[in-house]
Design goal:
The structure holds 2 protein chains of 2 kinds. Helices cover 32% and strands 28% of the residues of chain A. Chain A has 7 helices and 10 strands. In chain A, the strands form 2 sheets. Chain A has a 6-stranded mixed β-sheet, sandwiched between helices. In chain A, strands 2-1-4-5 form a 4-stranded antiparallel β-sheet, covered by helices on one side. In chain A, strand 7 (166-170), helix 6 and strand 8 (198-203) form a beta-alpha-beta unit. By secondary structure, chain B is α+β, with helices and mostly antiparallel strands. Chain B folds into 2 domains: 2-46 and 251-377, no CATH class; 75-229, no CATH class. Chain B contains 12 helices and 10 strands. Chain B has a 6-stranded mixed β-barrel with strand order 2-3-8-5-7-6. Chain B is elongated and about 95 Å long. The chains are: A alpha/beta, B alpha+beta. At the A-B interface, helix 1, helix 2 and helix 3 of A face helix 1, helix 9, helix 10 and helix 12 of B.
Chain lengths: 234, 378
């Protein structure tokens, strides 16, 4: 049986108070297993990003527990939660959030710099990861000189460099054309996903569903169902 | 932390436009603050030039005297009384007054004349040319080789001119520690000759210079002089009195203070606004760093480092600019009064720290407020 690296139990999140209160996620429970590619899908406003934020240590739930290796993540103090994000999670943001004043290699090196590695060591390591995503020849360019697909790969390299257990991608294909988006997810599935790593993707792009191990469907803050993806079926 | 500081450095310096704007703001503020205060200190130094150049330990004067230039004559018995006080090693009279020199081309040039005690010549300047004994020669005067020297057509030993319609001869050229404030040349002669050449009121002694036997005697000497209705001030006290007068009774200090405060506000406005804009533009990036795993304390250190770097660089550039300006000004205006001291550097540094602290505080507040979730939501 696969190992659950994160287990969400009854997590609920609302914003605002009183009449202005809006419940974004209601009583959601699920696990993320190592070796799987879990998709969280649903219409806009269904609570996908909120749910993703709560299991990755970014947004504190109002109710419920997020278990990481037997510890409730949200019982930790802010510095330990930051350490959790740095060591266990690799983020690929929808807008990438690359630093335009740094080179591509320096962008990738950031998590290692936050882990107190020396600048040179971190950048040297970043070159290896740029090689993995096929951008070794772009190391000294600023991100603005790269195409959207290349920037996405840089963001993936940055997410991978600290060797996290879980890679989290928010709408990874939203800014890409169909072919590029598909090739990125294919690359993630074939090259990045291992039995020691899980990938969680928030998306509404049905063209990439074929790579999912499981698909968690959300609507109005509820999980309406978890289905086996095409990849698992294969 | 070195890597995090490197990251902060690159984020700041690679944004060249913002970095330049920040540097210009701080540099300009430091330049103005140092320039204003150095001019003020230069004026104060010049105002006390006679006190510094003569070098006496204690100066006796009328209580109404605020500056060297507006001395009031004291009767001779004050000098006699001063000599008789216990603890006085020696005591001499000093003359200080103004006269008109008629140059060979017929132009009239005001000068300041210092009359030294005939016996001791106490307070005599260091000579560059000539012998001090020649001051006793007929019509002998020593000219001070300072910034105003050229106004007497660069006289040399043997140069003659008319001083208050009487013949005067240059017998020596002297160097002094500080030039005067009012831009007029200075001549030294004996007390007796000064009184002869310059029309005076009934009392001719401008100051009585006292050398105490020891510093322990100063208080007693002051008390004794006070019994006659006059005051005895140490050299530092007299300089302080002159500085106090120019600072608080002439408006000079207030105006310089206002200019310094304006420089501070301008620097704070430019730097604070630019740094805040820099933080705002990078807010998402700071949020992304937080999401990736940076702790609040690390982000605070990054901002403090950036602020400190800009402030230190701007402070250095501001000082450099000020020194260059003073250097260039002195090429064209040899008597340009400006003095950079540890005091005004410290003041400017303190103000830069305040600017950096306020700018950092604004930036830190915004960065601490940003939530990584805001980055996720886009």
């Amino acid at each position: 049986m696969a190992t659950a690296c994160i287990a969400a139990k009854g997590v609920t999140k609302w914003f605002g108070e009183g009449e202005a209160r809006t419940v974004a996620v209601r009583d959601v429970s699920f696990e993320v297993y190592l070796g799987e590619m879990l998709y969280i899908v649903g219409p806009s406003g269904s609570g996908k990003t909120t749910l993703l934020s709560m299991i990755s240590g970014i947004l504190r739930p109002n109710e419920g527990v997020v278990d990481v290796e037997g510890t409730n993540l949200w019982s930790l103090d802010n510095d330990h939660i930051a350490d959790f994000r740095l060591n266990k999670i690799g983020f690929v943001f929808q807008d990438y959030h690359l630093f335009p004043r740094l080179t591509t290699a320096e962008n990738v090196a950031i998590p290692l710099i936050l882990k107190r590695r020396s600048w040179k060591d971190a950048v040297d390591e970043a070159l290896k990861y740029l090689g993995i995503v096929g951008l070794a020849n772009r190391a000294t360019l600023p991100p603005v000189k790269l195409s959207g697909g290349e920037q996405q790969r840089v963001a993936i390299a940055r997410a991978m460099i600290s060797q996290p257990d879980i890679l989290i991608l928010d709408e990874p294909t939203a800014s890409l054309d169909g072919d590029t988006g598909r090739s990125i997810v294919s690359f993630l599935h074939d090259q990045i996903l291992t039995e020691h790593r899980a990938i969680v993707i928030v998306t509404h792009d049905a063209r990439i569903y074929e790579f999912a191990s499981r698909i968690l469907n959300m609507e109005d803050g509820h999980v309406t169902g978890i289905t086996a993806g095409a990849a698992l079926a294969k | 932390m070195k890597g995090i500081f490197s990251l902060a450095y690159k984020l700041l310096v690679n944004d060249r436009a913002k970095f330049a704007a920040l540097l210009v703001g701080i540099t300009f503020a430091v330049f103005l603050m140092i320039q204003m205060t150095s001019m003020f200190l230069g004026v104060l130094l010049r105002a006390s030039s006679t006190v510094l150049n003569v070098g006496a330990s204690i100066w006796v004067m009328d209580p109404a005297v605020n500056t060297v230039a507006n001395s009031l004559g004291m009767p001779d018995y004050v000098a006699d009384f001063a000599r008789s006080i216990d603890g006085v090693k020696f005591s001499v009279a000093l003359y200080s007054g103004g006269a008109l020199v008629k140059l060979p081309d017929g132009t009239l040039q005001p000068v300041n004349v210092i009359g030294l005690d005939d016996t001791s010549l106490f307070g005599r300047p260091k000579l560059e040319k000539g012998n001090i004994e020649d001051i006793f020669a007929d019509n002998g005067f020593i000219v001070v080789h300072d910034a105003e020297f050229g106004k007497l057509n660069n006289p040399s030993i043997g140069t003659e001119f008319e001083l208050n319609d009487r013949r005067a001869v240059i017998v020596g050229v002297a160097a002094v520690a500080s030039s005067g404030l009012f831009g007029i040349p200075t001549l030294y002669t004996t007390y007796t000759r000064a009184v002869q050449y310059i029309p005076s009121t009934r009392f001719t002694t401008a100051y009585i210079l006292i050398e105490p036997k020891s510093s322990r005697d100063i208080a007693h000497i002051k008390a004794e002089i006070a019994k006659l209705g006059y005051i005895a001030l140490t050299r530092d006290e007299f300089i302080h009195r002159i500085s106090h007068y120019y600072t608080f009774q002439t408006g000079l200090g207030t105006n310089i203070l206002i200019m310094t405060v304006i420089a501070f506000i301008v620097g704070l406005s430019i730097s604070g606004q630019t740094f805040y804009t820099f933080i705002l533009e990078n807010l998402e990036k700071f949020g992304a760093l937080k999401a990736i795993g940076a702790k609040n304390s690390e982000l605070v250190w990054m901002i403090l480092f950036q602020s400190a770097l800009v402030s230190a660089t701007g402070f250095g550039l501001g000082i450099g600019l000020c020194i260059i300006l003073i250097f260039i000004a002195r090429i064209r205006l040899p008597d340009y009064a400006a003095l950079i001291t540890s005091g005004n550097l410290s003041l400017a540094f303190a103000m830069v720290i305040v600017i950096a602290a306020i700018s950092s505080y604004i930036g830190v507040r915004r960065v601490l407020q940003i939530e990584p979730f805001d980055i996720f939501r886009g």
